[in-house]
Amino acid sequence: MIKRGRQEGWLKEPIEALPRWATFHGVKFNHVKIGPLPGFEDRGSTVIASNQLEGDKAVPLLVVPKDLIISRSNIELLARADRHLRQVLEAIGDFGRTTRGAVLTFLLMQATICCPDIKDIGLLNPLTEYVKFLPDELLPTFWSEEEQELLEGTTLRPAIRAKLNSLLREFETVRSATESIDWCAKYWWDEDHGMVNFEDWMRVDAMYRSRALEFPGAGDCMMPCVDMANHASGDATAALYETDEEGNGLLLLREGKKISEGGEITITYGDDKGACENIFSYGFLENNTTSAKVMFLGLEIPDDDPLRPAKLFVSTAAPGFRISEKGDSIEWESDFVWLVSINEEDGLDFKIRQTTDGKSEIQAFWKERELNDTSKIRTYLEDDSAWDVYQLRATVLLQNRVEAQIGTIQASHCTEQELTVRDVPWRLAEHLRSLELDMLKRAGSLLDSQKAKLLESKTVLQYLSMAEDDDEEVDFS
């Protein structure tokens, strides 16, 4: 890609050259500059106040012309003039018509155009040079296997596996769709001299994932210069980003904010994002992070459940449950757990139905009521006389899952940093493990309290009594 050979890194431009590029292409700076923060050079470049600033939304800190925004609509416009870009987007079909597919393909094309060994592919545009200013992000997808093993028991570990599998599928989709294009076969996929490999696809994914922002009127996109701003949450967020009536990107100081000369202009990447997502998408945690905030744990339907295949077929819910922090307490939510918790004896049924085109499909029913959306099961169960029994089953399922996750984290704890493990992954893994272990323990306490309360329910006591009279063993797990 932006490289001279398969083994060399992408070509980069020094950040000191960015102001010249920005000025030439119409980006307006108002009392701000881009570069490393003095004393924090290891954090890379950010937006810095070049004068003392006070909140005034009437004067944007940055104005980025709308045609510099890396968005799907702008990429479609560029593809009209660039036949090579258009060829690839058309070849990859539906994926190329998504924002993600269009942006990643566009970034890969700009890397191709920049390669000094390629002279006849693509059209130069202002963003071709901008890509060279983007730093390589140490996201977890680039952690070594030893570094990823530090995450065993955390929710980030399966997220990385799933992401790498997804990236590989995307990469193979792009390769298989474009290998019949002559110039792609020559420059990208040739076995001996091809310049694109899976790591290049991981790289453009990291660029997009760590820098995409949702702008009003522009959707998910990369906004040059604005995307250099670092994250800070809550009151520490210094600036807002939005678009003006003409579609240009703006960076605006928050009202009431005062930034001293040389101070950092921060934005928020999303205050509600949990610790796992922040590391996954951005490769960092704020120093003052004291809570995992949000966790998602997977759930499985037991293999001995006779309805398991049918349940999996009709399920429209994510297979797991979400634990989140609300004030000083913990709460959980899940649509999937209710599908796991009920069975045929309760009133769940499946029937085979013939469609108008002669095909067969499985249809779910709850006590003869058609169940088109399994996320609605809870609503049906709440109206059932055995609602407390269903709640108890779900609570015990989640409690067992939480206890298993706690055990995995504790069993895989490593006290010494290996020489092959870098400092950043080590610190992030240790911090995340601590945060998620704390949240899991709090969730376990909550579920234990809920279980104890449900065991006092008249409905549950009656259910248990009936089971004893029938000599049935009740296993809520």
Kindly report the average pLDDT value.
90
Major beta sheet summary: 4 strands, antiparallel
Distance between the termini: 53 Å
Number of structural domains: 2
- In the predicted model, the low-confidence regions spanning at least 5 consecutive residues are 1-8
Q: Sum up the overall morphology in one term.
A: globular
Q: So, CATH architecture of the largest domain?
A: Alpha-Beta Complex
For this entry, give a set of tags.
single chain; 477 residues; set domain protein methyltransferase, domain 1; 40% helix; 16 strands; alpha+beta; three-stranded antiparallel sheet; 14% strand
Structure description:
- The protein has 477 residues and is an alpha+beta fold.
- The chain has two domains: 15-259, set domain protein methyltransferase, domain 1; 290-469, Alpha-Beta Complex (set domain protein methyltransferase, domain 2).
- Helix content is 40%, strand content 14%.
- The chain contains 16 helices and 16 strands.
- The protein has helices spanning 18-24, 72-81, 83-91, 99-114, 126-130, 145-149, 156-178, 182-187, 198-211, 275-282, 308-314, 336-341, 377-382, 387-411, 423-454, 458-469; strands at residues 28-29, 32-36, 45-49, 53-54, 62-64, 213-215, 219-221, 239-243, 249-253, 258-259, 294-298, 320-326, 329-333, 348-354, 360-366, 369-371.
- The strands form six sheets. The protein has a four-stranded antiparallel beta sheet with strand order 1-5-9-8, with no helix packed on it. A three-stranded antiparallel beta sheet has the order 11-12-13, covered by helices on one side.
- A hairpin with an 8-residue loop joins strand 2 and strand 3 (45-49).
- The radius of gyration is 27 Å and the shape is globular.
- This is SET domain-containing protein.
- GO terms for molecular function: protein-lysine N-methyltransferase activity.
